[in-house]
Design brief:
By secondary structure, this protein is mainly α. Among the domains are: 51 residues; 45 residues, no CATH class. Helix content is 45%, strand content 8%. The chain contains 6 helices and 2 strands; from the N terminus they run H-H-H-H-H-E-E-H. It has a two-stranded antiparallel ribbon with strand order 1-2. Strand 1 and strand 2 form a beta hairpin. Helix 1 crosses helix 3 and helix 2 packs across helix 3. The longest helix has 14 residues.
C-alpha cells in the first residue's frame, strides 16, 4: 500500500520535515478573519488549522497593511518590459583557475600561529625553518 502524497514526515525529534504547505491569499485571509471574531484566540485558530500561531500573527500584519487582498496579490508582482542589449560575460573555468594561481603566488604556503600564555603571539607565514623556529620558541617560552 502506497503512502498518500501529502503525508507529513517527521525527524527523530518530532519536527516536521516534509514539503512546506503553501497557503493561497484567500486561505490566509479567511484564517485571519477567523481570529478577528469576538472571543477568538489566535493559538486556538492556529491549532484548529494545524499551523504555528506565529505564522498567523505575520498574516495579520499583512492583512492590516492591506496586503492580503485579491488586488494586492495581483498587483504585488507587476511585470516590466525587459530588453537585453549585450550578453553578460561570466568568467569561465580558465579565468577562475588563473585567479586561484595568482592568489596562491601572493599567499604563502602555510601559516603557523602560536600563542604563549596569552602574552606573546607568534605568527609565521610561509615555509618555516625548523632550527630557527626551535630557537624562537625556546626564547619566547623562557619569558
Amino acid at each position: 500500500m502506497d503512502a498518500p502524497v501529502n503525508a507529513r514526515s517527521t525527524d527523530v525529534l518530532g519536527r516536521r520535515s516534509g514539503p512546506r504547505r503553501r497557503y493561497s491569499v484567500a486561505e490566509k485571509r479567511a484564517i485571519v478573519e477567523e481570529t478577528q471574531a469576538r472571543g477568538a484566540s489566535v493559538p486556538e485558530v492556529a491549532q484548529r488549522h494545524g499551523i504555528n500561531h506565529n505564522l498567523i500573527f505575520g498574516w495579520r500584519r499583512l492583512y492590516q497593511q492591506g496586503l492580503l487582498s485579491a488586488q494586492a496579490a495581483v498587483a504585488s508582482a507587476p511585470l516590466l518590459p525587459v530588453k537585453i542589449s549585450s550578453p553578460t560575460v561570466v568568467p569561465g573555468a580558465s579565468a577562475v583557475a588563473k585567479m586561484a594561481r595568482r592568489r596562491r603566488r601572493r599567499d604563502p604556503e602555510g601559516t603557523i600561529e602560536i600563542e604563549f600564555a596569552g602574552k606573546v603571539r607568534l605568527v609565521i607565514r610561509g615555509v618555516a625553518d625548523r632550527v630557527t623556529l626551535e630557537r624562537v620558541i625556546a626564547v619566547l617560552s623562557a619569558r
